Amino acid sequence: MASVITCSAAELLPHLGSSANATATAEFICGRFNAVSEYLTQTTYAVDNTYLLFSAYLVFAMQLGFAMLCAGSVRAKNTMNIMLTNVLDAAAGGLSYYLFGFAFAFGGPSNGFIGKHFFGLKEFPSQAFDYSYFLYQWAFAIAAAGITSGSIAERTQFVAYLIYSSFLTGFVYPIVSHWFWSGDGWASASKTDGNLLFGSGAIDFAGSGVVHMVGGIAGLWGAFIEGPRIGRFDRTGRTVALRGHNASLVVLGTFLLWFGWYGFNPGSFLTILKSYDNSTRGTYYGQWSAIGRTAVTTTLAGCTAALTTLFGKRLLVGHWNVVDVCNGLLGGFAAITSGCAVVEPWAAIVCGFVAAWVLIGFNKLAVKLKYDDPLEAAQLHGGCGSWGIIFTGLFAKKEYVNQVYPGFPDRPYGLFMGGGGKLLGAQIIQIIVIIGWVSVTMGPLFYLLHKFNLLRISREDETAGMDLTRHGGFAYIYHDEDEGSSMPGFKMTRIEPTNTPTPDHHNRSVVV
Questions:
Q1: Integer Cα distance of 76 and 279 in angstroms
Q2: Mainly localized where (predicted)?
């Protein structure tokens, strides 16, 4: 936080001599100096809060990206449903995070497990937090909920969305963010008492684990308990592709998410007006430079993952697929999110390359296990997020780690960068505890919803599509390629080639 530089007339007086007006002069100079100092301090607060608000707006814009990506990835008969769930994630998540979530995450002073202050934003703003910080963290919370909604798309009851979204954003996600981001969290790299896990704490700068793994693992349990969509696997166990209806929406959503990621990763610095003490660089170098570097590493990881997926899928399946490339791009972003601020740009290329193969591998495993995730959310966010956490433990650079997490110059850093294995050990602990925590909270929740028949829609409703049966109509007129898509008041037909030969009027044969 910014600090005020003060001037004391008593300190200045010896430098003005013993003239009759020395005291008045000293008081006048210090008064002007203190006024300027206070103004500069207020300006620093204003600039940093404006930067954080702008970053929050970018992260919130990712909700539109999620909505477009989800809409394009499902069949047309479920478009209105998936769009409504994305709106619900933001709305329900806003209230639950306001009432409970922020307090559980950052309500210090507290213990290492859970926060206990600022319920309903009581005593806001404070020396520690302003409203901009709440808005930024809320945008992260609803991003985690949006990830989960993609995994259980096309077959989930609306009430289940309300329940899981509120529980995830109000309790499950905030606890994880407290552990790894709060100054009191037991595994946080920013822990203020100096008692760091393995001497380093787990470095998850922008949330490969806190956001992406939480959303991905929650979605994994939801999709697993619900089971695959009708028709996803035939009676012999063979895979049937239930393709999304609009690749254009997928591409639009991907670019919106790409744009929003520049608030997600660089914005996680929270402030921008901060200089770094570095004798090898001039005054032009500061946190603003680290923010730019973070945007570059984010970009390179995503681009590398997209190209790797493009050529990798071409070798595996024999064609170029834009939807696969978009998912690969997002997998690269999810992976670099953990170490984006503490690695070199060249390392980000390594991160993106491996992330693409992690996603491809998990997708193949999902098919073998007959696991159905329309958005590949568990594989993308859970799998690539896990790789990103490990990647940070391997490639974090000492100089950048000390800049981003100051105060402990001997803090361990990346194994491959000469920093030993302690940071990697902390990263592995993070993966284990996130999987465990989300599993013991969201798994039973989805199971109870299933047992009380609140989770999955009926077979008839799923076949007809939720837009008609649950939301009063279709998003737009369309032809559905699914079998058995005949619905009251709206006839869907398949256009098939006919086997009737075209008569040749110029070469008729005469039968005698």
A1: 59
A2: membrane
pLDDT in tens, 52-100: 999 999 999 999 999 999 999 999 999 999 999 999 899 999 999 999 9
* d(C-alpha 445, C-alpha 160), whole Å: 10
Residue 430 to residue 214: CA distance in whole angstroms: 11
Tokens of 373: 């995730």
Contact at 8 Å (CB) between 268 and 205? yes
Q: Helix, strand, or coil here: 383?
A: helix
Does a cis peptide bond (omega within 30 degrees of 0) precede residue 109?
yes
Distance CA 4, CA 69 (A): 47
DSSP 306-356: HHHHHHHHHHHHSS--HHHHHHHHHHHHHHHTTTTTTS-HHHHHHHHHHHH
**From CA 291, how far away is CA 92, in angstroms rounded?**
31
Q: Inform me whether the pLDDT recorded for 226 exceeds 50.
A: yes
pLDDT, tens digit (0-9, with 9 covering 90-100), for 410-449: 899 999 999 999 999 999 999 999 999 999 999 999 999 9
Q: At how many degrees (to 10) do helices 247-264 and 322-336 cross? A: 10
Helix spans in 130-213 (H): 131-151, 158-167, 173-181
Judge whether 104 and 20 are in contact, CB under 8 Å. no
Local structure of 456: helix, strand or coil = strand
User: CB of 52 within 8 A of CB of 35?
Assistant: no
Question: Residue 430: which of 275, 217, 236 has the closest Cα?
Answer: 217
The angle subtended at Cα 98 by Cα 95 and Cα 102, nearest 5°, is 135
Residues in the chain: 512
- Give CA–CA dist 166/90, Å, rounded: 10
Residue with tokens 């793994």: 213
Integer Cα distance of 60 and 63 in angstroms: 6
Among 495, 253, 216, CA closest to 379: 216
Q: How far apart are CA 154 and CA 156, in angstroms?
A: 6
